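Q: What does the assembled structure look like for these inputs?
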Amino acid sequence: MTHPLDATFAALADPTRRAILSMLLEDDMAVTDVAAPFNMSLAAISKHLQVLADAGLISQEKRGRVKWCKLEPDALRAASVWMQGFGQFEPVNLDAFERFLALELPDTES
Amino acid sequence: MTHPLDATFAALADPTRRAILSMLLEDDMAVTDVAAPFNMSLAAISKHLQVLADAGLISQEKRGRVKWCKLEPDALRAASVWMQGFGQFEPVNLDAFERFLALELPDTES
DNA sequence: TCAATCGTCAACCAGATGGTTGAATAAGCC
DNA sequence: GGCTTATTCAACCATCTGGTTGACGATTGA
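A:
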């Protein structure tokens, strides 16, 4: 009925949820740890995570009493592809980003 | 207060609004002509166009009694590029990425 | 001048959203 | 077993959203 992009974009429209995605980009996290930086109840974060999971942007796996949250970039990629097809935007220039990083962070070579 | 991506993604979350953007990709259109294919009142379409304009995705210019709607792809491009931070990269320094984008997209408001 | 057209405004409505609190479920620890 | 931790559930609330209808101001054209 409703297009999957509806859920993807709606999920991305909330800054708390985008922040959660940023955190999960670093590493998988438990619900409680996701909630820690936010000035908001655990239940609220739990709901946000449900929205992200329903949109396919994350997956959740329960091990023991801890529920682990993991980024699922495919849904994001679908939305990204939609937008690029839409405006025939060229993808961001990753080489330029790497040069930017090299300029900005001369010490932290990986 | 609220991040401009909030408005962009919220605007994109509605299928009617995405359809309107597709139509405007072909050509600029008057409000009445935008509304024609939809099974929905003119007032509803007018509100959708306002949402798109508030998000910076379109601009509207009134000439005579006709208001012309024009696609403004910059906001879309900003969102597209933001998503590539998740969709294409392995773990990445998002703060650095956003600073990089600020340089690449100087027009897309704070 | 006067009617038709273009678009918005205002009021209203149902349902979704984002948050709270407190109780409940489930798993681990001593 | 009984406390503690992890997470969700349920009820509730205020606000936002997406739609309607009808009235309205502005512009056009006969």
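Residues 30-32, 42-43, 46-47, 50, 62, 64-67 of chain B lie near DNA strand C (CB under 10 Å from a C1').
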